[in-house]
Amino acid sequence: MNPDPTSKDGISAMDKASRRLSDLARQLRLHRDDQGSGIGGKNRASVLICIFEGDSGDLRVILTKRASTLSSHSGEVALPGGKRDDADKDDVETALREAREEIGLDPSLVEVVAVLEPFGAKRGIVVIPVVAMLFSKDDFIPVLNPDEVEDIFDAPLEMFLKDENRRDEEREWLGEKYLLHYFDYETDDKKFVIWALTAGILIEAATVIFQRQPSFDERRPKFWRYHADIVA
Q1: Among 13, 21, 48, which residue's Cα sits nearest to residue 201?
Q2: What pLDDT sits at residue 107?
Q3: Residue 84 half-sphere exposure, CB side, CA atoms within 13 Å?
């Protein structure tokens, strides 16, 4: 194995990466949200926002493309996650369990650092975003569950704050106009579209992590809050 390159200050590139993620983890541990704590287990789901540092030093998030055989949202881009089981003790356990089942992510490889505010989804389901740090991407060897996941890829998290490769569609619900965002992303000659609730969750995560607002008009629908019954 080649030695890790070391800079003039004597700190290796790997150590710097770990330090950056560790500093970010400390920052995010202060960001907890319990607005959805009163919602019953049968009406909630969790998604895992798994962050790691890319080769160029950017923060990246793991995403999946849902299997085309699924009865709902087939072929769409999503974060690893799913509905809460009765055996799950909390939202974090749901997110970690689903990520292991869908993409083979061992929970011991990540550190959960934050739980973001809930989002409302279809049929009154509450979606809880759980943020975790993957400190060593090389230790993660994806094992996809073909019944649920067709593909796995990663994208730069900061992309969801930029007005690049982004388009939007104005919609209306109960007299309220809002924007549905679409992010076009291409990697390894594959094209993906990240949109709707997944895009909304990632905009929120990027806003919290980078501590700045998106460079575009977000106009988020109010019904994405956990007390809503419907999402577009």
Answers
A1: 48
A2: 97
A3: 21
CB 194 within 8 A of CB 201: no
Helix (H) or strand (E) holding 182: strand 176-187
d(CA 161, CA 211): 10
CATH number given to 13-159+217-224 = 3.90.79.10
Question: Where does residue 60 rank: exposed (0-12), middle (13-18), buried (19+ CB within 10 A)?
Answer: buried
Nearest CA to 204 out of 19, 26, 17, 33 is that of 33
Per DSSP, the three-state class of 55 is: coil
Q: Which helix (H) or strand (E) holds 199?
A: helix 196-210
Residues of the chain with pLDDT under 70: 1-17, 31-42, 71, 74, 122-123, 225-232
91-149 pLDDT, tens digit each: 999 999 999 999 999 999 999 999 999 998 756 789 999 999 999 999 999 999 999 99
Indicate if the alpha-carbon torsion angle 107, 110, 114, 119 is positive or negative: negative
The encoded tokens of residue 36 equal 């959805």
CA dihedral 217, 223, 226, 231 (to 10 degrees): -100
Distance (Å) of CA 22 to CA 68, 71, 99, 148, 203: 37, 39, 22, 32, 22
pTM exceeds 0.85:
yes
Joined together, the tokens standing for residue 13 give: 């590139």
Residue 29 identity (one-letter amino acid): R
